[in-house]
Amino acid sequence: MPLATPPATPAQRARSGDARMLAQDLGHSRQDTLQTFSDIESALPTLQVPIAPDLNPPLWELGHVGWFAAWWLARNLERARGWHAHPDAPREPPERAGADALYDSRHVAHASRWSLPLPDAHTTRADLAAQLTATLDLLAAETGTDAERLYFFRLALLHEDMHHEAALYMAQALGVAIADPRWQATPLPEPGPALQLPAAAWALGTQPETGFAFDNECGHQAIDLVPTRIDSQVLRWQDYLPFAEDGGYTQAQWWSPPGWQWLQQWLKSHGPAPRYLRREGRTWRQWRHGQWRALALREAACHLTAYEAQAWCRWAGRRLPTEAEWAWAAHHAPETAFRWGQVWEWTASAFAPFPGFEPHPYREYSAPWFDGRPVLRGASFMTQARMRHPSYRNFFPADRNDVAAGFRTCAAN
User: Fold this and answer.
1) Of all helices (H) and strands (E), which one includes residue 267?
2) Per residue in 229-273, pLDDT tens?
3) 408 forms bridges with which residues in the sheet?
4) Given pLDDT bands bounded at 50, 70 and 90, which one contains residue 6?
5) Inter-CA distances, 389 with 33, 206, 231, 238, 378, Å
């Protein structure tokens, strides 16, 4: 009997690999979580960070990833039912008394997390070690790649990877140096020719039976694509900054009404420039690793809001791609012709359910955010390779610029 072909990419491995692969990935994810926490702890020994909408206390972040995995795995009596499990299925009590009142993000208000009686770093690390051991013991009893039985293991893995990326955003915002070369931006080459998208019938959506899928990826959205041309890669700083140098941050004509409103608030505390950038004469400098450094103009333009992406497009006579256009290119074109994964990419599409959507047990993941915010596609240089999947739908409010997000464009048609 021929051996099964192993998954080709880390993301495919995470979504459809066997239990042995999943155990390895859970261990690697935890190593990265702990290392980045240690980097933050070394720079900020008190682990005190400002109360801000886009931050969490580092100790809360650390404890939450372990709590989440235990809630859906060791404590969940319906874990083997996967996405069919009842969201409020009976739970075993937590190993740490009172853990639900500390780490359950559904019920612990964001602003209250700074005043919680959180265990210290040593204790939290010990709690995470015990949780991971319990998770791996459960996983050791699994064989094969059964999508339902492995569903919550995969959810816990990818959830931790998301929080690792959020920790890197925190490090960037607080000026914490991160030395690991995996989480550094790299230069992009000169862009290749634009990719011609043909007229095509295309469908967004999948089903969890084909391997792990987040609930917002599931369903079936039929789309008729019209011919257009889409950039082969995202904009670099040298492509974006002429807009700022041309007065783009002071001219209302390029901005949508919500974008202009956001910009007026931004200018009250920042200069007419993207987050983490400032201009010194003719030179642009970037805040990175706690220092102002010369900006690498060939790196992808990053930490941009959707409003900035839209304004650049109006200035340049271009437009953002729709989610369907981006997905068609990512699924059909070789990556040499459609390079992605350097930054999350804003699209022109609102985050909404596909027809046939049914929420998975983690009810709070998608449905509360079907509020018109944009979809982002792709991945960033801060994203774990396991998260870099062409079907993954990210979603942030249009005014978020702590996220490692940029954009590519399409012909205005």
Assistant:
1) helix 257-269
2) 999 999 999 999 999 999 999 999 999 999 999 999 999 999 899
3) none
4) low
5) 20, 13, 19, 28, 7
